[in-house]
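Help needed: design a sequence for this.
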């Protein structure tokens, strides 16, 4: 069954000091990775409807009834049929090999190089029933942790410029 990719690009990051969706090649780089891996249905979740024009392809604003990210994830999961690969716009180190490994995993939440689960990179099989609760972690609690040692560094995300600088100096 054909995968859909959902890219989270909901807004400027206060801690990062600029819009993460536009950094390090931004959403366009992630869209290209998805296409390289054979994903044709790529949806960018842009947050506020004022951001729709910032991105190429299929772009969906957050519905008004969604108050937090977990609400948006639950909504999009109900809207898309088939398996879904979620990808945050701050997956700056994601490469096509690591993405391909996720797509072939059969479903789960990848571990980053610190062995932390990265639920915003969840790979949801078509029949996955999201967990109850308000947190993003609770939605994906029933998905196994995926340890792709070779790709672990690709699954890191960044919330502050210092993290990005530190990581790229290593």
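Sure. Designed sequence:
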């Amino acid at each position: 069954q054909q995968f859909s990719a959902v890219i989270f690009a909901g807004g400027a990051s206060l801690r990062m000091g600029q819009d993460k969706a536009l950094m390090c090649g931004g959403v366009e780089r992630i869209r290209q990775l998805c296409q390289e891996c054979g994903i044709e249905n790529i949806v960018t979740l842009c947050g506020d409807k004022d951001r729709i024009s910032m991105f190429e392809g299929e772009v969906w604003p957050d519905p008004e009834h969604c108050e937090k990210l977990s609400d948006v994830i639950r909504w999009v999961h109900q809207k898309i049929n088939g398996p879904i690969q979620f990808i945050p716009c701050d997956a700056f180190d994601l490469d096509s090999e690591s993405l391909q490994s996720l797509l072939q995993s059969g479903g789960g939440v990848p571990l980053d190089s610190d062995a932390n689960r990265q639920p915003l990179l969840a790979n949801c099989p078509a029949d996955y029933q999201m967990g109850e609760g308000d947190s993003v972690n609770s939605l994906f609690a029933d998905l196994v942790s995926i340890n792709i040692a070779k790709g672990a560094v690709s699954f890191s995300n960044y919330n502050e410029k210092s993290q990005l600088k530190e990581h790229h100096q290593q």
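Helices lie at 26-36, 69-79, 96-103, 136-139, 161-169.
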